[in-house]
Every structure is written in C-alpha cells, then in structure tokens.
C-alpha cells in the first residue's frame, strides 16, 4: 500500500511520501550501528535525562500529535490525547526504573562456591540495533512501549511503521532527536513491507519486535529464525469477557461497552467475545446492547464522539463480511449491524452486538477488528472456561466474578497472557504484556520487557589459588 495520510473520516488523501531507496536505507543502517557503539556505553543517568526530556516534549506536543493521530487513523481526539499522555508516563517510568531493572545480579555464596567460582554475577547488556515493525491502531503507544525500554537498555531502534501513519512515525524520530539522543539512536524508515526482510537480514540488525497481524508475525519470525535473531511478537487477539452470576451486572455491562469500542474497536486487547452465565444472560445482554446503542458515532475530532471511523475502507469491508456471515447463519444483531445512514463519507460502522453465535460462523474463529461484540450463553464455570479457550488467540482476558474459588479456577485454566478481574484489560509500564498461542510470544513492558533485548551475560571468576600451593 502507498505511504500516505488518508483521513478515514472522509476518505481524502492528504499527503503522500516516497519510500526510502536502497542507498538511503544503507546509510541509515550504518548510522544506527555507529549510534549503538556510542549509546551502549552511556550511563543510565544520562539516558534517563534524555528520556525524561522526551516525555516533557511529548506533553508539550500533546494536542498537535493527538490531532495527527486522529487525522491519520481515526481514533477519537479524546483518546488520542490520552494515548500521548500514557506514552509520556511510560517514558518516565522507564527513566526511573531501568537502572534497577537491569542491575547486576549475584548468586548466593553457597551457589557461587558450588559452581567452583570465587565470584559470579549476571549482567544485562544491550543487543544492538532492534527493528520495530509497528501497527497503526495505537501509532504512538505501540512504538513508545518498545522504544522507551530499548533505548534505556542501551539499544537503538529502527522503526518501520504502518504505511497509513507516516506523519506520526516521523514525529517519533524527531521527538527523540529533539530530546538529545545521539543521531541515529532512533530512526524512522519510510519503507513498504517488502523492504522488511532485507533490513532484518542485515547483520547490523540484532533483533526485531513486531506488533500486528498473524501473517505479518509469521513472516518476520520466519526471517528472524533463518537468521537466528531474537524476536518478540504481539499479534492478534479475541479476548474473552466472562460474566458470572456473582458479578455486578451494571458495572460489567458498562465496562463491556468501553472494553469493546475502545479505539473504535480496533485493539488487539479489546474484549471481543462476551461469555455470559445463563443466570445473568438476559440482564447483561439488555444493558450491554442499550449501552452500545447510546454511543455517539461520528467525526473523531469532536470531543463528544465515542466511536470514530475504522482506519481503512478494507477494514470496514472485512468487518461487514464477518457480521453478514454470522447473520446469514442465524446470529441476531441486538443492535447495529450496518453502516450508519447519516454518515455518507468515511469508513464508519455501527456499534454492534451479536447473539446466537455458533462454531460454524467465521466470527467465532476470526478476530473482529471493529466495534462488533459477540455474546455467548454458558451454563456453568466449566463451559465458560471451555468457550473462552476455544480460540486460536490468547492475548488477554476479562472475568467478572466475586467468588474466590472461581477466581482461582480462571487464573489456573484460562489460556491467556493476562487475566483481569472485575475490570477491563489495560497495559501499564509496570506490568508485563503479551500473549500465548497465535497471539505471539515474548513480553513487552515491566522488567520482562526491557530484558527481552538484552544479552543476559554470566560472569564467572575462578577460585583464587591457595597461597601455599
């Protein structure tokens, strides 16, 4: 696809960009390697000073970069401002915690002796140049949650962003440059997906991280595996939202609306499959559908808008096909299920609640990337766990219960990278984030995330010779 800003609220192409040529890509790879040799030896104090400065600049730019994100991919402006603020918070968190998270570790005296050493320690050293292949749905946050820990660990970054958010991508390079990071520490590569393989195979690139679709993840993982390079993948999700009889149904239904339509429903960790116990099914469905009907769909630049357009025309077409297939096979649209009649421009779709889902429907197996919820009726805890796990994905999960025994069971048996009780899934710099099954591998954020792109180095010192020997 072309590298261009296309406003999804109108379908208008606002700005196009030329892809970098081979000579410029080579120059930037060389610059990245040179920058790493300088940056890897800097002290944590200096890195923290630069990262905090980047956070300051981002906060100053909050309104402008929020408008850029909304223009490029359609998220409501209120959410765009919140995304910028969250990025600044993560930058400050890593600036304040990186040194302790990467501090040298020392085994016990007994273990050192048993290893035949006089001294032993474990050190975390940066890997080098890391290629980040990032998606459009959280165009600032997805990048910062990689860049902040990577730069604080002493690595440098090359960003291949989604082709429909080029101005946000260029802003990120400029942000780290203005903050004072050495030239080449963080570079944006305006290239198409076809250029990723050759960049990843370049010996100056040490590792890669990708957030995106399952096919994209498979492609990057295959190349990296062939080159024996480390990867972290965060791919699709079809997160369950389980509601048990002891739940606060009012709160659960209100949270379900937000959990489903956050970012216009275009989030890997958005709740998508609502699995409801028969005792509370009718009450939950009624409140949930009514909450979805009440949402304001329209211009994402308006402060009152709850749901903006999908990011692309193809994305809306894909979502429509999933809904149409389900309805044709017997599902019921409790609300929505079509394009809003009042909006004749842009790629909008009504918030939709589908019930009567069966395993033969595509939407049961495929990720619905838009404001469409599927609701399942279950009779007991065992069935709830079974339906929740009946997905190729395992990113996160949400469970509403006040029963301690059920809590223990869901923690033990849900196949997901996270279990959020009585609330909705959210990412935070202090908590590891990632999934299992086809949702990918590795972790972002927290200490786990910053160590993903470190060389965990064992240092062993032989026993000192006996003075009398």
UniProtKB/TrEMBL annotation:
It comes from the Bacteria. Residues 3-459 form the Aldehyde dehydrogenase domain. Gene3D superfamilies: Aldehyde Dehydrogenase, Chain A, domain 1, Aldehyde Dehydrogenase, Chain A, domain 2. The keyword Oxidoreductase applies. The keyword rRNA processing does not apply. GO terms for molecular function: aldehyde dehydrogenase [NAD(P)+] activity; succinate-semialdehyde dehydrogenase (NAD+) activity. CDD domains: ALDH_SSADH1_GabD1. SUPFAM superfamilies: ALDH-like. This is NADP-dependent succinic semialdehyde dehydrogenase. It comes from Streptomyces lunaelactis.
């Amino acid at each position: 696809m072309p590298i261009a800003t296309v406003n999804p609220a109108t379908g208008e192409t606002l700005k196009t960009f030329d892809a970098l040529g081979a000579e410029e890509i080579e120059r930037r790879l060389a610059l990245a390697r040179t920058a790493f040799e300088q940056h890897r030896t800097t002290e944590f104090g200096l890195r923290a000073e630069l990262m905090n400065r980047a956070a300051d600049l981002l906060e100053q730019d909050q309104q402008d970069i929020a408008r850029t994100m909304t223009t490029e991919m359609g998220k409501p402006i209120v959410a765009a401002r919140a995304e910028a603020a969250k990025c600044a918070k993560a930058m400050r968190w890593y600036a304040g915690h990186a040194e302790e998270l990467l501090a040298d570790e020392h085994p016990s005296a007994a273990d050192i002796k048993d290893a035949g050493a006089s001294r032993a320690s474990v050190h975390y050293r940066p890997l080098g140049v890391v290629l980040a292949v990032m998606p459009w749905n959280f165009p600032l946050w997805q990048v910062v949650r990689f860049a902040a820990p990577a730069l604080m660990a002493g690595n440098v970054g090359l960003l291949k962003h989604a082709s429909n958010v080029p101005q946000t991508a260029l802003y990120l390079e400029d942000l780290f440059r203005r903050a004072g990071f050495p030239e080449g520490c963080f570079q944006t590569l305006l290239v198409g997906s076809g250029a990723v393989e050759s960049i990843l195979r370049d010996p100056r690139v040490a590792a890669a991280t990708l957030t995106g679709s399952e096919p994209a993840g498979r492609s990057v993982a295959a190349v990296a595996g062939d080159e024996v390079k480390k990867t972290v993948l965060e791919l699709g999700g079809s997160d369950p939202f389980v509601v048990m009889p002891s739940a606060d149904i009012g709160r659960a239904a209100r949270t379900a609306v937000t959990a489903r339509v956050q970012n216009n429903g275009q989030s890997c960790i958005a709740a998508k499959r609502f699995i409801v116990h028969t005792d509370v099914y009718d009450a939950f469905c009624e409140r949930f559908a009514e909450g979805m009907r009440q949402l304001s769909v329209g211009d994402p630049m308006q402060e009152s808008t709850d749901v903006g357009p999908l990011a692309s025309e193809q994305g809306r077409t894909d979502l429509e096909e999933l809904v149409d297939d389900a309805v044709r096979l017997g599902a019921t649209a409790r609300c929505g299920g079509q394009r809003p009649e009042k909006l004749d421009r842009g790629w909008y779709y009504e918030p939709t609640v589908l019930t009567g889902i069966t395993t033969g429907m595509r939407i049961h197996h495929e990720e619905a990337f838009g404001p469409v919820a599927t609701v399942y009726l279950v009779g007991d805890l065992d069935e709830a766990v079974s339906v929740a796990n009946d997905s190729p994905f395992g990113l996160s999960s949400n469970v509403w219960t006040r029963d301690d025994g059920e809590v223990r069971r869901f923690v033990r048996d849900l196949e997901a990278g996270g279990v959020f009780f009585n609330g909705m899934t959210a990412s935070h710099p202090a908590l590891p984030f990632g999934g299992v099954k086809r949702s990918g591998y590795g972790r972002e954020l927290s200490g786990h995330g910053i160590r993903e792109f470190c060389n965990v180095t064992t240092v062993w010192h032989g026993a000192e010779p006996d003075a009398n020997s």
